[in-house]
Fold:
Amino acid sequence: MNGSMLDWPLTLDRILVHAERWHPDQAVVGVASDGGMQRRTYAECADRARRLSAALLAHGIGPGDRVATLGWNTLPHFEAWYAIMGIGAVCHTLNLRMDATQLAWIARDAGDRLLLVDPALLPVAEAVRALCPAIEEVIVLGAGTDALVAAHEPARWGGFGEDQPAGLCYTSGTTGDPKGVLYTHRSNFLHTLAIVQPDLFGIGAADSVLPIVPMFHANAWGITFAAPAVGAKLVLPGARLDGASVHRLIAEEGVTMSAAVPTVWQGLLDHLDHAGGGLAPLRRVVIGGSACPPSMQRRLADHYGVEVRHAWGMTELSPLGTVAAPSAASAALPPEEARRLLQSQGRPPLGVDLRVISDDPAAGPDAPGRLFARGYATVGRYFGKDAPATDAEGWFETGDVAVIDHGFLHITDRDKDVVKSGGEWISSQGLEAIAAEHPAVAHCAVIAADCDRWGERPLLVVQLREGEDCSDASLLEAFDGAVPRWWVPDGIVRVGAMPLGATGKIDKRALRAAYRGHLRAS
Ligand code: AMP
Structure:
């Protein structure tokens, strides 16, 4: 028997239409590529996006066609998203930290027909196009899209099913070639409804939301859908993500909620150390993409009154997997224990299923193991591939090693990052959390270095804060009593600047390539 409810496809155009209808005057502001501020309302953005849709249709773009974007989080990029998705085409966000050869490989794999690009990135886009003749045209976000908006009447949106693909995002490809994840309207729509909930990102119409996480990193973790969905003010930071710029934007645009990877928050905290000042009216930040050091969480909470929501996710999960939020149970715990729980990666929302499987059949229920996920917003198969990305029951192997403790997920490592010493696992993330406590440390990473006796041993790589110095002994002291003796790193490497990967996380692959043999050489 069928249900008798209205057939109302969950398509993403409805999000901006909703904002236009119910929050028409709410502000959407963005730092433009020349550094100036652009200001529009949701009603203006929706009208402009529909006109841009008409230009895409006039070009011959139709449902399912891939249109690539290469840009920072800006107003023209935001409008282009909805223009593309509103007509059933697929918005393929390219990662601007990749070089032209990598981008061209991805654009070819995706079959991109158009490339919309930030003015500052035009030379890269032209280089990509030269390598990828299937791209019919490069259009500049701003000057190019403004001209198209001016030349067209608004198009009609919708009229397609919720299982129509809406967005395409490639994983960073740390193992093998990058793989495309093709989100549907339905998966992103439901993901939007999930992340605005109070125990997740907790976003409402009174918020001013700053997604620092790029739109090309798993749809800015969904925030560029969530803000219009609830009528929040949206602040798009453009290309300047340094501490001083982020600090200014928070104050000037009254930002109450923001999201970014830990390296961005570290930049902001370093800036505040030198420049002084507070973070009001910021009240909550989501930190994820890599583990948030407990010391960062404490500094934001205790010094600046900012609540940290530690989140775990991945491109393949749209991306939200878990968030650590207070609960009645955590409130009843002694403060230090409650804090420890909230430093974990937290719990999944309804619609995300997780399980941990240990390779050791004798291991207890809280032993670390391989983490699997499934849900309505989990990848089923990668773009262009026939083979499923999951097992027969729909479980997707995340590649992370985790423990579920009292219902809270603790990621202990990426399986490639775990240090296997004498057959036992040492959590690189556990060691990093401790090293990050040292006041002289700006960034740190623990990698597996080759060792004749034990196979691998942990090596600590640190970048000290500007103007700071400290001895190896003082760095190693922090591990005393905090971890078993055999976990303590066997060596320390100091670097001037940590290598960062395409999404702003510390690039451990580069560190391994450089320092894997360090313990043998020394
Ligand atoms: P990406 O698809 O680029 O967002 O990368 C996803 C991977 O980032 C995950 O599989 C984890 O290894 C890592 N990651 C994301 N969030 C966290 C977190 N809060 N703690 C530890 N690792 C994380």
